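Step 1: inspect the first sequence and its tokens.
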Amino acid sequence: MDEVDLMLQTNQETSEYEVFFRRIIEEKHQSCVWLTANCFPEGLSNYKNMGFPFESLHLGPLQANEVQKLVESHGITFDADWEKMVHTCMGNPLLLHSVLRKVSKVLGGQADLVNQKTSLALNEFEYLLNKLFTNTNDIKELEIIVLCTIASIDRTQSGISLLALTQNILENHPDISELDIFNSLERLQNHNLLSLVTDTGSIEIVMVDIIKKYILRNYINNDQNTSSILT
């Protein structure tokens, strides 16, 4: 069953779906049920901790060699610019397929007509992010605060330390605890909106440029949103 997270976003039928999935997990049967989601609902993931036969797997991004195979499968020549797409699209196969279909359909497979292939991903990514950020079940106000803080402090690709992020948020939002921040970071990682990198004993938080631009444009550089979220 695909896009389980979308099923649980439908307010009118959420309780019915929750009961349906709970019964599948709790009842004894010989079937194996596969569920996919952009970010797996926390309520279902808790069943593993309760001892039920339930497993979850977080799929990582495509690597450069996998992207090369994907590009060539569309009959398009792979070059150095496509390697940049791995970073721009965060290795998301849905975005990459969408860009490749656009190249095949609009440009007849002539990808060399576009100097910056990363620009082809922007519209598709904007659509997916709008869907994600308009759903308050996925992205809550605390997550917005965390993302805005990261984008404000780090406007480059270098990343910021976990300590710097925590100190900044606690100073500006005394009602938020460290545990709140850590839980929010975990949810944002599950949505692939940022990553945590351990380097020489310290933890660096990295947000790719396309996410950072989205946050800057829609929350920080937007006076109305900024006043409602950050003050």
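Step 2: inspect the second sequence and its tokens, then contrast the two.
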Amino acid sequence: MRIAVAGATGNIGTLTVAALERAGHDVVRISRSLGVDLSTGEGLDAALAGVEAVIDATNFTGTDPREAVAYFGTATRHLLAAGERAGVRHHVLLSITAVHRVEGNAHYMGKREQERLVTEGPVPWTIVPATQFHDFAAMVTGWTERDGAATVAPLLVQPIAPADVAGILAEVATGSPLGRYPDIAGPETHDLVDMARRTNEARGRSVRLVPTWSGPFGTGMAGNVLLPGPGARIAPTTFDAWLAEQR
């Protein structure tokens, strides 16, 4: 198949491109750095020529809700409109578990807008909601670290390996549209603060961790809120196995 990956140079996008190419598919990489701009639509029509499926693994790292909604909304509208013009038969969106249970978080608000546009859009779709990735704790400490200390919310998560996410996206894209896919998650629950500590140790980094609910992850995300729902698809890679690769 000829399959396009939006966000192809990002963490999940890069792994998804590799998974598709290993399976013998013709992959079109969509990224601003490669000359295709989702914020303007520039280059999209040419990129999607002959494409049968699109995987949207785009990301936004800002903390302003209006900016997140605007970014995801604009990019998704351009991607869907170009997909319709090109005759794309399957639009696969990577989303987040619990996206409709969390209020006030910019990223979740943006993803909700993205989901709304996809479900109401012109291209047959599958939405794949994933739990946080195994490298999520390291990302959080990277965002908050100042003078050798980082704040981390004591979230309960069931993280999934980025490579497992990519493999599932590649698999889903080659099949028929399924609507909302079951949550995908890793095999074990973990505390995010402990994940951050162990990741830093594995990478040889010394960072003092300060557990706190002040910041982008509030108490509305505490307890079981971020865990996968019933019938989730459990990916095989444990956090320990992923961590062993970081050493």
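Step 3: confirm your contrast with the notes below.
The mean pLDDT is 95. The radius of gyration is 18 Å.
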